[in-house]
Every structure is written in structure tokens, then in C-alpha cells.
Design goal:
Blueprint (H helix, E strand, L loop, with lengths): L4 E6 L9 H17 L4 E6 L23 H7 L11 E10 L2 E9 L2 E3 L3 E5 L3 E10 L2 E3 L1 E3 L3 E7 L9 E4 L7 E10 L11 E5 L2 E14 L6 E2 L9 E12 L12 E6 L5 E10 L15 H8 L4 E6 L6 H14 L4 E5 H4 L11 H20 L3 E5 L5 H9 L6 E7 L2 H7 L4 H6 L21 E4 L4 H12 L1
Parallel strand pairs: 1-2, 19-21, 19-22, 20-21, 22-23
Antiparallel strand pairs: 3-4, 3-11, 4-10, 5-9, 6-7, 6-11, 7-8, 7-10, 12-16, 12-18, 13-14, 13-17, 14-15, 14-16, 17-18
Length: 470
């Protein structure tokens, strides 16, 4: 956690006849642990709280100890100086009024003055400070911990969560980070699942792309692992949806910490500290092309979008998707079906059916659908996609009007009786342990855009969908 100063009081030495040997033995074990944890300054004090030895007054029974008392160490502690060089201000809000626009935040380290040239990250836009506004009125300058509003000239594109520095400083903006993560949720970490990363006033979708190792907190050993359970600590690689200006925790406690929040439950599932800003994330930029989604869709005289069919195996998703595509084809609408089974024979061939692999299955499918929408197509996705968080991650890739989530709600008894692929029979024999609805949970959609009764005739459900699309 970046802690560099630790005070350890070894109590009840009176019960051990104030033995120096006992104290030295315990202190030696503590030193080994503190070295492993890279704690640079550890103060170990022998004391007896019952008798008051070395708490406030130096002990007469432990004349072999010549160090400070507990109260002396506490009162003599000096907070570590700010490690980052120069001024930092993270934008907490955009202040607007008539003929006024400013960015509000708290100064961390250094100082800032009217007329200073600054830079806004991650965009690297530059501007000058034309005004510094506080509750006490306009200021000529401000120092660390001051809550202020800056008026910029010109009014550059700056948003909540961006970081302001002096113009001659540089921060590596990236969407890839190596971090130490403490998992807090009862449900384990799921690779490729989209969470919300919150750091200060920054809030952005992010996912854990790689778990490098899990840490044994007792021995410090780095263990191979595929996930993190509750209270476990691991070294992970994290990818965010767009570039951020985070700093290593060793340089800045303010700009190097974050939490992960579950998109479905809004519960905090992990706390993390940035260890390294991975520069490969800053070496990739979006390439703009003159022909875009609007032009491609205009050529086809249609509106692109995604109809995401979710439901149990055997609920009727593929049957509905097939008939719907036929109707759209007859109407001259360029469409394409992304079927879960078909994708698992190609792009998702390497994936199984664990929770982590299902999350990756949804992620890849949604990215393919996004490309097809960008090509101007109307995409029909027929995928079990059993978890709410993964479905919401898929939705987040599209503009609000482009994505329609449809729950094909069919009782599991009906799905079992249909069993077009024989999967339920295999699951009953124990051949498919992760069968959705039996061995693995299906989370009913919380806010679907449309619910279809999977027991109704296919033609009736397709007619309902056509009314939504056209």
C-alpha cells in the first residue's frame, strides 16, 4: 500500500519477565516481514500497557531498550512529503454560469498563478490561466490543498477527471496499467468482464485483461492463479475504455489509487494501486477515416443497430433470429446474424463455458457487432449471454438508440422439452456441468428493452420485433 513508516508495539512483556531475548526473537521475525513488504522505516517498541512501561514513560524494567517510547514516536512522526514534482489538479467539475466557464478542483503539490501556461491530460491541450476563483474571490495564485476554479484561455476541451499540470511537465496518458489489486467481493474476479474504474472524480469502464500472479500474504510468494477470491491480492493488467492520466502509487497516492465497481450491482468489488503505467497503451491512437458509419448506412438507406437476443438454450433465439433476418432481407435491409454456436466454431473457438470464458465470449461478440454496425448493417445477435454485467458491457459499446436488448423468456421446462441440440439430456447425465439454467445461473435481464414470450408462435414474435426495428 506504499506505507513506509510502521510503529509496532510488542505488548505484555511483563508477562515474559521483560525478557530481551523474547523481544529480539519477535523483532527479528518482524524485520523479515517488513523487508519483504519493502517498508523502509519500522520502529519496534517493547512495552507493557498494564504497567505503563515505554508507553509514555521509559521503562525501568527494560533498561536494555534505549529507543523512544510509544508516545514519543507518535508525536515525532512527520508525514511524508508529496512525491510528485510540480503542481497537479484533477478536475472535479465544470462550473458554468452566464459568460463564465471554469474547471474546479484541488491543488496537489506546487503552486499555480494567473498567467501560467498549463496542460490538460490525457488530451495534452494547452491553455493559460486567465483567472483563479475561490470562495474568497479572485486570487493571483494558489498553493497545495487550495480548492479553486480555473478559467482557461482558450476554453480547451476539458472534462471531469482530467488532470492539469504545468505546460512544461509531461504525464504518460494510457489505457493500460499494471496494478496491485485487492479483491473485496464474494464473487471471484472475472476476466474480460467490464467493471467501472473510479479514481478520484474519474469514472470509466475497465476490465482486467491478465492476472499475472496471486500473492501469498504470509510468505510473500507469487502464486500462479486464474482468478482472485475474496480478500486475495494479485498483480493484474487493466485496460480502460479510453486513456487516463493515472500515476504510479509510489509517486502519487492521490492519482495512483482506484476502485472497481460492479456494473450490475454498483457494489465495490476491488481496490487497487497503480504500479506501472504501461506505455504500449499510449502508443496506439485511433485512425480517422473520411467514410464513416453515417455514410455507409446512408448508402444502404437504413439505420444501423443491434438487436441482442438473450435467453436460455432452447428458448427460441436462433429460430427467431433466422426468421427475422429473412423478413429484413425481403424488405431490402442489410442485416447479419451473429449466432453463438456459429461464433464458437470460429472467432470464439478457443473459449469454453466457465464464467470467465462466457464473459470473453460476450465481449468478442459485442466488438464484432460494433464493427458491423460501423459498416452500416443491422445486426441480430443470438447469444445466451447469461450474466447481466456482460450484457450491460455490450450495451455500453453502442449509442443509446442503436442497441435493443430482447429477452426471449421461455420457461426452462419448455426449453428442456424442445432440447434441439440435446444439451439438456447431456447435462442431466453430468456431461455438461456449466449448463446455463441448471449447473450455471442465468441472470434475468433487469431492464430489457423488450420481453418476448418464447412459447408464442415464431411469426408473432418476429412481427413484434419488426415493429421495433422499422
Amino acid at each position: 500500500m506504499g506505507i513506509q513508516n510502521v510503529i509496532i508495539a510488542i505488548n505484555k512483556l511483563d508477562a515474559m519477565d521483560y525478557s530481551q531475548a523474547v523481544f529480539d526473537s519477535i523483532a527479528a521475525q518482524i524485520s523479515i516481514a517488513s523487508n519483504r513488504l519493502k517498508i523502509s522505516n519500522t520502529t519496534i517498541i517493547p512495552l507493557s500497557a498494564l504497567a505503563g512501561d515505554n508507553v509514555v514513560i521509559r521503562s525501568q524494567s527494560m533498561d536494555w531498550y534505549t529507543g523512544p517510547t510509544l508516545i514519543e514516536v507518535i508525536q515525532g512522526w512527520v508525514p511524508r512529503e508529496h512525491l510528485i514534482q510540480g503542481m497537479r489538479l484533477q478536475i472535479q467539475s465544470i462550473s458554468r454560469a452566464e459568460n463564465f466557464r471554469g474547471v474546479t478542483g484541488t491543488v496537489h503539490g506546487g503552486s499555480i498563478n494567473v498567467g501560467d501556461e498549463i496542460k490538460v491530460f490525457p488530451g495534452s491541450a494547452t491553455a493559460k490561466i486567465s483567472r483563479i476563483v475561490s470562495l474568497d474571490g479572485d486570487l493571483e495564485g494558489a498553493k497545495g490543498s487550495a480548492a479553486i476554479t480555473l478559467v482557461l484561455d482558450p476554453e480547451v476541451d476539458a472534462a471531469r477527471g482530467d488532470i492539469i499540470t504545468m505546460a512544461d511537465e509531461e504525464i504518460v496518458s494510457s489505457d493500460r496499467y499494471l496494478a496491485n489489486l485487492v479483491w473485496l467481493d464474494e464473487k471471484p474476479l472475472i476476466h474480460s468482464r467490464s467493471y467501472i474504474l473510479i479514481s478520484g472524480s474519474t469514472s470509466i469502464p475497465a476490465m482486467v485483461t491478465k492476472l499475472r500472479h496471486k500473492l501469498d500474504v504470509n510468505s510473500g510468494e507469487e502464486l500462479s492463479a486464474s482468478t482472485l477470491a475474496m480478500n486475495e491480492i494479485g498483480s493484474v493488467e487493466i485496460a480502460t475504455d479510453s486513456a487516463l492520466a493515472l500515476l504510479p502509487y509510489s509517486q502519487s497516492r492521490e492519482f495512483g489509487n482506484f476502485i472497481l465497481v460492479d456494473r450490475g450491482t454498483n457494489q465495490t468489488v476491488a481496490a487497487g494501486m497503480v504500479e506501472i503505467v504501461l506505455r504500449r497503451g499510449s502508443n496506439i491512437t485511433h485512425q480517422h477515416y473520411d467514410i464513416g458509419k453515417t455514410e455507409r448506412a446512408g448508402m444502404k438507406s437504413q439505420k444501423p443497430g443491434v438487436l441482442w437476443l438473450t435467453g436460455l438454450s432452447g428458448s427460441g433465439k436462433s429460430t427467431i433470429a433466422n426468421e427475422l433476418e429473412r423478413k429484413l432481407f425481403d424488405l431490402g435491409i442489410h442485416s447479419y446474424v451473429l449466432d453463438g454456436d456459429n461464433l464458437r466454431q470460429g472467432i470464439n473457438k478457443d473459449l469454453g463455458f466457465t464464467t470467465q470464458e462466457r464473459a470473453e465470449n460476450v465481449r468478442r461478440t459485442s466488438e464484432v457487432a460494433k464493427l458491423m454496425v460501423d459498416a452500416g448493417l443491422y445486426v441480430i445477435v443470438a447469444l445466451v449471454s447469461p450474466f447481466e454485467g456482460d450484457r450491460e458491457q455490450a450495451r455500453s459499446l453502442f449509442e443509446e438508440h442503436e442497441f435493443t436488448q430482447v429477452w426471449v423468456d421461455t420457461p426452462i421446462e419448455i426449453c428442456q422439452s424442445r432440447d434441439p441440440k440435446g444439451l439438456y439430456k447431456k447435462a442431466a447425465k453430468g456431461d455438461i456441468p456449466n449448463m446455463t439454467g441448471l449447473g450455471q445461473e442465468y441472470e434475468n435481464p433487469v431492464h430489457p428493452d423488450l420481453i418476448l414470450d418464447g412459447t408464442l408462435p415464431v411469426a408473432e414474435n418476429v412481427t413484434t420485433l419488426l415493429k421495433v426495428i422499422l
